[in-house]
Amino acid sequence: MTAWAAMSASPEAERLVRDLIGVTPAEPFDVVWLHHGEYVQVEVREKAERSTFGTPPDAAEWGVTFTGQTRTRWARIDLPGGASGASEEWVAETAAGPGWLGFLADASDLLAGTLDPDMVPAIIAQIVVPRLATWCAVYTAEHAWEPLRPAYLWHSDETQIDALRELLDETPIPSGEGPAVLHAGEWQSLAFPLTARGRRLGVLCLGRHDSFPEEVMQLAEDLGRRAALAMDNARLYAQQAAANRALQRSLLPPEEPKTPGLDSHVVYEPAGETNEVGGDFYDLFPIREGVWRFAIGDVCGTGPEAAAVTGLARHTLRLLAREGYAVADVVDRLNQAILDEGERARFLTLLHGEIMRTDQGLDIRLVSAGHPEALRLRPSGVVDVVASPQSLLGVFPEADFHEETLHLDPGDVLLGVTDGVTERRSGTRLLDDDGGLAKLLAECVDLSARAVAERIRRAVQDFALEPSADDLAILVLRAP
Question: All domains of the chain, ordered by start, with CATH?
Fold first, then answer.
């Protein structure tokens, strides 16, 4: 009913459905809604013998039809805006009463309910048809100097849409600053500019068989302003979301890390709205033949400030690693670089290490700077913590970092995660309470790095019903 802009008829329609279902046998049946412009038809279809039923009190028309073994009980309810002149009666009644305000309020709610700029033209067209007009066409332009292009077309009789589209293709669309007459065949039609914040976004075109009452023009003009503002907000949101997605991509490796001779996998999932840049990041890159560096980190907070520290961290790690700095020295210099940012700085947790392939597995040197514990899984199912916690970055100038060494035998797995995993919340419980992450990892014996990462990701997702409010990054290394 909302999609058909028939909210005022909803109570009668609901009672009509109850009446039809009330005389239906206790057998399976289907309820079907059909929109015919001037009215809505409700059908209850079931397999049954021929019979009759009483008149639904709210129905304008009703009946029973049979197709094969299917009996269909149907009833119709008239909608405002039909050819019978109900539109004029509705406008005359509501323009001076609360119905007009209710209609505008419903329209505003529908328009505000989407941040997709392509959905706004569809919503406004289905709001005004058939209440204010028989058909509606919305034209938009990305920029004021660009030609208008058709964005959405709606007619109370869907079979007439193609013919109307052909007619409008041959009709000049006004692009002035005020309402204008649209010369579209025999239709009485008007064009209303869609303007928001001083910028032209498009044109709203309406057509009727009869002339437009003054009340309808006022309503259409008001709806045009609301639609334009909703469209502008949606465009601004989409532009911001696209910019932040591009920024987020720039803070991560340009492609999935390629590590020949090393079984590895990374999972990264940003949380929250698309207009937020998260603070989690990862990296895995080669230094020389058989040697790689890896990092998984989490910057405090989200947004541009967090993104600035994320970019600083990832590029500093790569640059210093390729300059030959040891793991602990890289972390120490990154700490100083973050502190040098002053008030713009955000503290950072980081697990950073170097991997060297050997004949007996992998030798790893690593530093865990305030980061969630790194875990090792043995083929026997034993899980242990492999790095002691050190100071997080961006807080203490005097922090001194030292490397720890670790060997992974063939089949051993190293797991690093951000707190989007360990602090996944369900009620008062966290996923890592009572060693929850270690227990999950213990169930991953004999799995590949990809399978381990996906198992952890699914466990995080299934731990609570509500979506995660934090970014998530998982890095898995497995000794071949």
Answer: 7-78 (no CATH), 86-246 (3.30.450.40), 251-478 (3.60.40.10)
